[in-house]
Write a structure and sequence with these properties.
DNA primase, PRIM domain, single chain, 2 domains, alpha+beta, 6-stranded mixed beta sheet, 4-stranded antiparallel beta sheet
Length: 269
């Protein structure tokens, strides 16, 4: 079985037992979504979330490119405190399919690009709700979206495929992560002050008192955010899906869009 010129190994292997989704099913999904997903992936160093034996087994995060990756898998040297990493970036459908064939279920992207890895072009707020509080996190997303618009931003909204939402906006690459840190923290603090009954910036769960945590800490060098249209390694096979602000009221869960209905969603775009 070949897709985009890549030989698919063990296509009948079940990766999501609850949904009986095979590796072939997953790879075909990534082939179908490539045109929409690649603009988010291009030029960004990746962390791969791999589950070669399925989501019911222990998976692993992979930052460094494997020695056996073929030449068409592009890499970039990333400076770290310990030295450097050789990380993958994905600029083609063939690369996307190859990485999916390696058991990569979720793709996590940097907030900066390989040519200027220290200067982000995206700011992301991850809304992390307590259990069984999806209506509350929807309310939080609406308020944060309006707050950012009032502050001159053009925020985008995405279901995470797991528990909450990501809200992000683009920025010019004029500052480093360190230079932008205080501005982002100040925005999160202002959100908390504007809606104290709903939002918190407390990093410790026992300090959140049932509120929605505004996770702004991923806006740092080397941190990642799940790529739009990535499948999540959960039994529901939720998919991180960009949505319009006018759609928020209709979303029933963070995995509202999942492997079973994503094609219908794509047909609406």
């Amino acid at each position: 079985m070949k897709i985009a010129g890549v030989e698919i190994s063990h296509p009948d292997k079940i990766l999501f037992p609850t949904k009986e989704i095979t590796k072939a099913d997953m790879v075909k999904y990534y082939a179908s979504i490539a045109d929409k997903m690649l603009p988010y992936l291009k030029g960004r160093p990746l962390t791969l979330r791999r589950f070669p034996d399925g989501v019911d087994t222990d998976g692993f995060y992979q930052k460094n490119a494997s020695d056996y990756f073929p030449d068409f898998i592009k890499t970039v040297q990333i400076e770290t405190k310990e030295g450097s990493n050789t990380q993958v970036y994905c600029n083609s459908k063939k690369s996307l399919i190859y990485l999916a064939n390696q058991g990569t279920i979720s793709f996590h992207i940097w907030l900066s690009k390989r040519d200027k890895p220290e200067k982000p072009d995206k700011v992301v707020f991850d809304l992390d709700p307590p259990a069984n509080s999806f209506d509350k996190v929807k309310k939080a997303a609406k308020k944060i979206g309006d707050f950012l618009k009032d502050n001159g931003k053009d925020p985008n909204l995405m279901t995470t495929g797991k528990s909450g939402f990501h809200i992000w906006y683009t920025e010019r690459r004029t500052q480093t992560f360190d230079e932008r840190r205080e501005t982002i923290k100040a925005l999160a603090d202002e959100m908390e002050q504007a809606f104290p009954e709903l939002l918190t910036t407390a990093t410790r769960k026992n300090k959140r008192n049932g509120k929605i945590f505004i996770d702004y800490l991923r806006n740092a060098y080397g941190q990642t955010s799940v790529c739009p249209y990535s499948i999540r390694a959960t039994s529901e096979a939720g998919i991180a899906t960009p949505i319009g602000w006018d759609e928020l009221s209709k979303i029933e869960s963070a995995s509202h869009y999942n492997f079973e209905n994503i094609q219908r969603r794509l047909g609406q775009l």
